[in-house]
Amino acid sequence: MTLEIYQFPARSDNYGVLVHDPETGMTASIDAPEESAVKKALDANGWRLTHIFTTHHHNDHTEGNAALKAETGCEIIGPRGEAEKIHSLDKQVGGGDSFRFGNYDVQVLDTPGHTLGHISYFIPEAKVAFVGDTMFAMGCGRVFEGSHEMMWNSLSKLRALPEDTTVFAGHEYTQSNAQFALTIEPDNAALKARAKEVDALREEGKPTLPTTIARELATNPFLRACEPEVKAAIGMADAADWQVFGEIRKRKDNA
Ligand code: ZN
Ligand code: FE
To answer: Which of 11, 47, 155, 171 has its CB surrounded by the most CB atoms within 10 Å?
Structure first.
């Protein structure tokens, strides 16, 4: 039996995600953006919360931790590097660690930059990754705590995942990301097509996530900072990948 995954909106533009292993009955919430939204999602599926996998310390990813733990006794797993900021952690993990969730292995990737301790979770057998605020559809998280080089290295780890990996991210920022991406690569055919798809989905009120590594490799300007055509497009043909990434990030910050 395969892992069941349920994505739902929370707060103003966050996504919550529940991951359920039907064989063992275990259910994990990827982050806990909002207690009520997570509870509603659990009820809608008839699942009982056993775990929370935290990606980083920001309030819109951890606010529901304490209440959900008090109600369900769930185990909260999260980044060792942010344990001092996330008081509710039961188990601290970091890059290179893996742990069992039901019948699945969960691998932890260090993906710092948005915050210094940010981690992502990858379940190879299910070909699924949960990247929090490291990468979005056609975008990436703001580099609040780390450096551009650090964030580029984190995105490079996501680049290296199998192309058919399904990727869940923390926010629905896709439409504005697409508009920005087109300013970097106005002639990218895959990007132009995707931007149209995204507009249609949003018009119907539908989510544009999850995405896949393959789609991001084709359309995400931040992930594409190492591509010669992207470097050339912004007049940085000879610059290092992370410097090109940094320039694109700066332009987005000022957009
Ligand atoms: Zn965040
Ligand atoms: Fe966030």
So the answer is: 155
Closest ligand to residue 170's CA:
2
CA of 115 to the centre of ligand 2 (A): 10
Q: What is the pTM of this model?
A: 0.98
Superfamily of domain 4-168: Ribonuclease Z/Hydroxyacylglutathione hydrolase-like (3.60.15.10)
Protein residues near ligand 1, an ion, with CB under 5 A: 58, 133
Question: Catalytic positions, please?
Answer: 56, 58, 60-61, 114, 133, 171
Residue boundaries of the structural domains of the chain? 4-168, 174-253
Secondary structure, 3-state, 25-41? CEEEEECCCCHHHHHHH
Model confidence pLDDT, tens digit, residues 64-117? 999 999 999 999 999 999 999 998 999 999 999 999 999 999 999 999 999 999
Q: Which-ligand-closest: CA of 171?
A: 2
